[in-house]
Structure formats: structure tokens, C-alpha cells
Amino acid sequence: PQAAAQRATPDVGIQLFQLPWSSIADECEATLGPSGFSWVQTSPPNESIARDEWWASYQPVGYDLDSRLGTRDDFADMVMRCDAAGVDVIADAVINHMTGQDAAGTGFAGTPYAHYEYPGLYGADDFHHCGLAQGDDIVDYTSREQVQTCELVNLADLDTSSPHVRETIVTYLDDLLSLGVAGFRIDAAKHMAADDVQAIVGELPEGTRIVSEVIRGGAREPVQPEEYTGFGEVFEFSYPRDLGPQVQSAAFADPVLEGDRPLLVPADKAVVFVDNHDTERGEAAVTYKDGPLYVIANALMLADDYGTPVVFSGYAFTDRDAGAPADAEGAVLPASCEGATGPADSYLDGERTCVQSWTAIAGMLEFRAVASDAARLRGVEAGSAYGFEREGRGVVAVNAGDDDIAIEIPTSMPAGDYCDAITGGRDAVIDSGCRGTTYTVADGVARFSLAPLTAAAIHLGSQR
Ligand code: LAG
Ligand code: CA
Hints:
Elements: E1 13-16, H1 21-35, E2 39-41, H2 72-84, E3 88-93, E4 105-106, E5 112-113, H3 144-149, H4 163-178, E6 183-186, H5 194-201, E7 209-212, E8 233-235, H6 238-249, E9 270-272, H7 292-303, E10 308-313, H8 359-371, E11 380-382, E12 385-390, E13 394-399, E14 405-410, E15 416-419, H9 421-424, E16 429-430, E17 433-434, E18 438-442, E19 445-450, E20 454-459
Parallel strand pairs: 1-2, 1-10, 2-3, 3-6, 6-7, 7-8, 8-9, 9-10
Antiparallel strand pairs: 4-5, 11-12, 12-13, 13-20, 14-19, 15-18, 16-17, 18-19
The chain binds ligand LAG and calcium ion.
Calcium ion binds at residues 96, 148-149, 157, 191-192.
């Protein structure tokens, strides 16, 4: 039966937040490649201020590839090893600003800097001084000029309209491309005029992948994600804002999860997610802290037909500022995910969540490889349970509530027994039957009996 499953290579990313380059390389070989992740998004690779908080990574002092996460050689080695494992590297590019530290200092790799002075790169004239608000900080998001030319939390705002600034940024991005990266997450893209971003990325080789972070701020804000879709993709924040609360409240009646999705950018421009490093510390309705509900949210996203999903994997925290565990010099410690098969009941601060290694995630990547070309059919609700079919190729079902629920989903999949990809993972079918739960399709219906806070997924490749 497994021969019936045509497999595609699905476009699925993983954000490995604040993970050292050497560990990402290990992950590419051990897990990301074998599971079928097509790209990994790293944290910013350039030199930043020397502080322990994770957000030091978002305060550049220069463009040498020398950071708490590793050296230039480490980075280059990671890109090569990931590439050999079939995994592209997308680097987080912090190009809207330099550090926001008011005092002069020395960066992580020893480079001296002062606020608005970065020797060899930028001087006072290369920055915006909007003169529109106290301390030049952005306060009014209904003003395009403030959002794009004032300072985001005191971060020295580069004048990205200036030829010198553009050239300097292009040189940095070209350097990363020379090491083999496939593209960039454009940090704080909303805070740069779309024309400026376009002019910068337009200098890069054809095919460079660009994913702009433009946090959708609602109709009152003048800067909209749609402005940034002419030269790449954008992270679509409406997606987690829709999916997360549905999972959290176990109420799947909201029709926005299906259909035309009018509030969202076109699917081929959207990168979607359950949470990221900012939203897990803020607005996200569901994060690793929600254990099984997080699995449910990820399963629904990975089974869905809208956008390119990116899975998030970071480390446990109670203090939102706390950096990943590091040595005495501030270098982040390597971490392994061996043996991580699902969410833990509880985590120690700093412990890696290892989402990329979870059985359910590997199973859903396999589901996507088999089913993502098929139409997504309308969802079926049964109390706190919900599910849908990818026509003729796979069915997913979840129970986000506190009671056992039986849910039946009409399907055109062949009748028979199927092995669950959530509990069985990538190779759910084994000689003796199923690695995990077995479900049955009969008379055009897939039947699932779901315990509280569980998910199930079957696909043509998981038929027994
Ligand atoms: C982003 N996208 O637009 C990043 O995803 C987000 O993580 C970054 O904020 C932000 N934009 C700037 O790149 C993070 C933290 C902030 C932190 C900032 C700079 O969420 O809390 O600000 O990085 O490190 C911190 C302090 C501020 C202070 C600022 C400047 O929290 O109070 O004003 O540093 O020193
Ligand atoms: Ca700006």
C-alpha cells in the first residue's frame, strides 16, 4: 500500500532559536534532513553587543560573523553540512538598525562601537533622526513616517534610503550568500520602507529567498504586509492569531480557518507559524508551555493548505529576557535533542524544547509530503474535536477538549487500516502493524476515538 503514496518535498521550515551553529549542523544531519525540513531559520549570525539576554542578537555592532552562536568558520561549516543534508539555511538579517545601547562599548567579538558610530561601517550621517517624538522613539504606529524613520526601542535606525547604507547592507548579505545561505528573514521589515527593502534585496542574486517580518497591525496602521510581497514572502501573523485561540478554546467554529481567508496575504506569499521567539514571549495563544495543545496546533498547521509553515523550536524560560544557557565567555552552549519524542510535562529553564525531534512533528512532515498537493476539504466539528481531509490522501483530527470524543470525517481514501502519524511518526507502519495507534477507514468515513488533548493523522503512506 505504501507504494500508492507519491511523495513531494514539502516546503517546511524550522526556526532553531538561539542554537549554536555546530548544533544546528548536527540537527540538520540527525533530524532536519531525514524528517524532510527544507530550511532552517537561524538566529542573527553577525557580531552584536556582549550581553546575556537573547535579544542581544538583535543589537548589531557590525557584520563580522562572530557571535555567541559561533564563528564564521562554524557558520560556514553549518551551511555546508545542512546543504549536504538537503536543508537550506535562512539567516535572520537585522538590517533596520544597529544597537540601542546609549553607552559606547565593545561587541561580543571585541569590536569597539558607540551609539551611531560603527567604525568601518556607519557614522552619524547614516542614521535616521526622525525628530517626531521623545528620544526619536516610535510611539505612534498610525504614522508611517514614525514607524519607518523613528527608532524602535531606541535602536539606532539606519537610513535605508541612503546609497552607502544600502551598499553596506548588500555587502553583508552577499557575504552570507557566499557561504551558501539560501536567503534571509528580514527582521523588522515593517520599520523599513518597502521600497528600501526592495532596493536592497534587488541587488542580491536571483532566487535569494526573502521572508519579511511585517507584523500585521490591523487596518489602522498604514504599513501593511501586502506592500512587501512584490519581492518575497512575508510572515503572516493573522494565521497564528486565528489558529491559536481556536486550539486554546477548543472551539473550531471560526470559518476563517478555512475558505478564502480574506484577511491574509495570498498563500504563495505567506509563511505561517504557531509561534516564534517574540510571540512565545507575548501574544501567542499556544506555545511549548501548553504541551499537547501545542502538538495539536502544529498538526493543524502542518496539515493545512495555506502558506509555508515554519515550526518553532527554542528553550524553556520563565524570564522573557533570559538567554540560552551559555559558558563564562557568553558563548551559547551546544545542545542535543537525542531522545526527545514529544513535549515534556515540565521544563527546567534553559532546557531545549526540541520540537523538531517530536514524533508527531516528523509524522506530520510525512503527512505533508504525501498529502500537500491534494485539496483541503471543509472541516468537520464534533464538540471540542475537529478535523479535515486532504482530498483522497490524508485526514487529520484533533481533540482540544477535556472529554473523550469520537469524530467521523468523510473521506475518499481507500478503505482499510491506517497507522497514525502523530503517535507513529515518520515510519508509522512496521512489520507487525503500527508503531502507534491504528485507525480505520470504512464506507467512506475515517473514524477516530480521541482522548482529551490528542491528535491523529493518517495518510496514503501510512496504510497497513
Ligand atoms: C524584531 N523584529 O521586528 C525581533 O523579532 C525582536 O525580537 C526584536 O526585539 C526587535 N524586532 C528588534 O530587532 C528584541 C526584544 C526587545 C529588545 C530588542 C533589542 O524583544 O526587548 O529591546 O530585541 O535587543 C531591548 C530592551 C529595550 C531597549 C533595547 C535597546 O528590551 O528596553 O530599549 O533593547 O537597548
Ligand atoms: Ca527604520
